[in-house]
Amino acid sequence: MIDKLLCKNSNTLIDAWKIINENGKGTVFIIDELEKLIGVLTDGDIRSFLLKDNNLNVSILEVMNTSFVFSTINATPKELFPLFNDRIKIIPLVNDHNVLVDFMELNKSLYIPVAIPDLNGKEYEYLTDAFLSTWISSTGEYIDRFENDFSSYCGVDYGIAVSNGTVALQLALETLGVGAGDEVIVPDLTFAATINAVLHVNATPVIVDVEEDSWCIDPKEIKKAITQKTKAIIPVHLYGQVCDMDSIMEIAERTKVFVIEDCAEAHGATFKGEKVGSIGDIGCFSFFGNKVITTGEGGMCITNNKELNSLMRVMRDHGMSKEKRYWHDLVGYNFRITNLQASIGVAQIERIEEILLERKNIENAYKKELKQVKELVFQPNNLSNRNKITWFVSVLLLNNRDLVIDKLKDEGIDARPFFYPLSIMPIYKSYVFSSQKSQELSKLGINLPTNKKINKNTILRIKSVIEKNIS
């Protein structure tokens, strides 16, 4: 491809114009007899020259730009990206002798993010329909469809769509009467939304450690942490892994506490054939842009309990009576989703199995190429009595995790560390019951890109970086 961007210093402007038309890049690189880079010329430069009543039969040396941006072939993507701007879209790369050997073009496909929304179904069609209906706020047919479709997919009777996954947790806690003086058990290894929801209802979180083999909340630690003040347990199905729901539900039934499943990263995962979110009293989901299915921002509470469903709907809508408009029986919230967001959700749930299969295939591709790297550990799967797993992202444990992440970013590949355990953050330290395994896992965990841009070549690039930097 580089040959199609070259123009010799003996060429005329019309020669350069022909080359630009053929390569479609809007640019040529001018080289001398020794193939050293001496200038750059764009189609814009040529147009400006012609506007001054000049013609194309002049030497390219009269028109070429000698003050141009270039870099070396050894530069990393991290060093090259800052050189691009609205005007500069392509950068020539030279060797130590200033000989042109390659180029880098600004192209979104060069950067591999951790997550990309999969919007290749009827999302745009439904969104346009919702827009044209003028029902763009918190009422509209797509909200009802999304709630019905998602709750049916999860195997429950009711779905209550909300503005995000965090308020889904808060709504569940409020509806179950959790508040000041109550304790709620949460895992140490989770995103802060889990514990923040507890604090927002003025309850006291109790942070317990996770299992070493699943990375999810440890039922043995739950048993130790239960007190007379415990009102609820929030098991988090971390990275698509399913908690030991048999043990958790047994504890809950024996001690008469509620179970609120945090399923933000586990859409479609199952435990003994039952979808997550359908096992506890209330299941809570997030539809943020990086989730398995998305509405941009959004969330959902699901339940089989008719009374909880009715109460959540009232609490979600300012506490306003469903029978008497503008009459408020409760102090509620505005936790509503919009019809526009729900329209995207309807299209997403239509394709959820396709999206899950794609993520599974990416996970299998990672395992195939990385299985020879003995120093890394994949997320556990096929745990006893569990029908795991939906891959929120592909996750590994490895040494030198932070160095690997930095080196991947140098290659234009995004990767993320595990969540910080809640126990090490000063604002949560007073709530810690146990935390050892969570802290160990957090230091080693890495989230790899899991999206449509991932192919074998990308995985081999990731493998190379890991092998060079793992210890």
Describe the protein's architecture and organization.
This protein is α/β, with parallel strands linked by helices. It folds into 3 domains: 2-107, CBS-domain; 123-350, Type I PLP-dependent aspartate aminotransferase-like (Major domain) (Aspartate Aminotransferase, domain 2); 353-469, Aspartate Aminotransferase, domain 1 (Alpha-Beta Complex). The chain is 34% helix and 16% strand. The protein contains 15 helices and 19 strands. The protein has helices at 13-23, 43-50, 77-80, 123-133, 141-154, 165-175, 193-200, 219-225, 245-255, 306-316, 339-350, 352-370, 401-410, 436-444, 456-469; strands spanning 6-8, 27-31, 37-42, 71-72, 90-94, 100-105, 158-162, 183-187, 204-208, 230-233, 258-262, 270-271, 274-275, 282-286, 299-303, 377-378, 394-397, 416-417, 445-448. The chain has a 7-stranded mixed sheet, sandwiched between helices. A 4-stranded antiparallel sheet has the order 16-17-19-18. Strand 8 (183-187), helix 7 and strand 9 (204-208) form a beta-alpha-beta unit. Helix 4 packs antiparallel against helix 11 (339-350), helix 6 packs across helix 10 (306-316) and helix 13 packs across helix 15 (456-469). The longest helix has 19 residues, at 352-370. The radius of gyration is 28 Å and the shape is elongated. The two termini are 38 Å apart. The mean pLDDT is 92.
